Backbone:
């Protein structure tokens, strides 16, 4: 089995910063594409930032210039650095990773974490 665990959420004032982490553990062989999602109250879960296994990144429009996704493959950890936070960034943030578990060959498994809450006060 493979899992991801998000950490780093919390309450921050407008203009503040947070760094979220997504740690993959279990029988992890490799991690492919990773995406951070945000789900605001009463809204659908939207993609915020994505990083491919080769390091290519894409961002949702409102995240460009403020958020940065990165990864440390030796630690099986993906980060989301969030700066200049705004109240509209409030929501639950989820990590989704394509993970190849031991014994699965080249086939990856779509793994979601439980999410962490980020609240930005005005």
Residues:
């Amino acid at each position: 089995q493979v899992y991801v665990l998000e950490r780093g959420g919390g309450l921050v004032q407008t203009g503040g910063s947070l760094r979220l982490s997504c740690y993959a553990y279990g029988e992890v062989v490799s991690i492919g594409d990773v995406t951070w999602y945000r789900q605001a109250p009463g809204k659908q879960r939207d993609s915020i930032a994505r990083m491919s296994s080769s390091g290519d990144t894409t961002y949702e429009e409102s995240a460009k210039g403020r958020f940065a996704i990165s990864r440390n493959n030796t630690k099986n950890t993906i980060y989301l650095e969030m700066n200049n936070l705004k109240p509209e960034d409030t929501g639950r943030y989820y990590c989704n990773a394509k993970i190849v578990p031991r014994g699965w060959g080249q086939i990856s498994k779509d793994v979601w974490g439980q999410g962490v809450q980020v609240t930005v006060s005005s």
